[in-house]
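=== RUN LOG ===
request id: a7f3
mode: sequence -> structure
chains: 1
length: 462
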Amino acid sequence: MDMNSSMEIPELSSANEAREKEDTIFGKIFKGDKVIWTVFIILCAISLIEVFSATSTIVYRQQNPWGPILRHATFLIGGVGVILFIHNVPYRYFSSLIFVLLASIVLLILTPFIGTTVNDAERWISIFGFTIQPSEIAKISLIGTIAFLLSKQNGDNDVVLFKWMIGLTAVVCGIIAFDNLSTAVLLFVVCYLLMFIGKVKLIRLIKVGLAVIGLVAIFAFFLKIIPEDWTQKGILNRTATWKNRIENFTTHKEETEESYFTITDENYQVAHAKIAVSNGGLLGKFPGNSTERDFLPQAYSDFIYAIIIEELGFLGGVVVLLLYVIILIRSGMIAKKVDKLFPKYLILGSALILSFQAFINMAVAVNLIPVTGQPLPLISRGGTSTLITCAYFGIILSADRFGSAKKKEEDLVSDEDEEEKENNENINDGADFGMQDSGDPLEMKGKVEFEIFVCNDEEWET
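=== RESULT ===
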């Protein structure tokens, strides 16, 4: 028995060493919170499967079955590289996002003049042969700037910092709103919530909220009275789209059964999204078997959640929803254990923008809100949006690593102090039994040998 045990010990030790080595390699590359990493990997896997299925129209147009998915996989791999780089950067360097914000504002101003029009929207700009979306860069840089300004509040400069935060938010969201209203609204809501979390005085936030409500009322009245000729071109060319989407969603006409099931140009997207959701049932038709991907516009982007429900069913849709809920909850848990305010607000801002954008995309797919055009973070096919989404994950992981380092170091110091205290108590206990150090090692050794000798003699005599 002992011989078998002795033969098994080297094998077990070698297996344990190999496992520890693998864990060490994995830990050195993928640092930070493991839950966030797990959710990220699952979302990437779902993205590859669904984008490969939903890009049938692009495949037919390009006559290349592997082109769309290879492009998307390339951006995902690039996104992993973005995360690996950013989550190794200490969070204090993210304060420089203010300079990125200034550059993105310039790009936003230039986009209507030198930008590229896609789907009747001028949201992209080409730089050195690469097409980027300035609004995505503005989103992440504004959130980082707001987080930094919130962390610098000390009671004396609150008014000045609040004016800067509201001013920058108004400028960025105002410029974005001309061509992408849903993104502007989303970004403003996230920044507003971040200010609320950052303990900006409630009376100031209420004043801003009332001002925004007034602007919304004026905007709605403006949409009602604006002549159609003004919306044909220029900076108001998107107002007609906004008006039609809002009216189609809010107006409820009495329809016959035949007219209700008739697909027109006005309800084309919504109707096919409903059909996709209806086809999914509980378990779905399984990946690759979607029929609405050939009819639903932007099936691989704005309406990919409808394709997910059609192929993975109601249960698959719930799983995807829960993944974004986990991001929000887990980020809140990470922010709670972070000591510094700047990384805390960075984590919360990144999590809010990711989860809220996902919820908006899902709500559009199931016809809970008007069509917006927001992609599903990390799952929808994209270029700049995919890389920026990965940057949000990298910021969360970086803030988790470096924001919690000080707390971990303090815990380690306290543990060492407790251990030292315990050792001192043991020494004092030893002194009570006559084992106090006399200062001479040889004398101490002699005492110990003598006591052992006496003890042995006593045992022998008994």
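=== NOTES ===
The first strand starts at residue 116 and ends at 118.
DSSP finds 17 helices and three strands in the chain.
=== END ===
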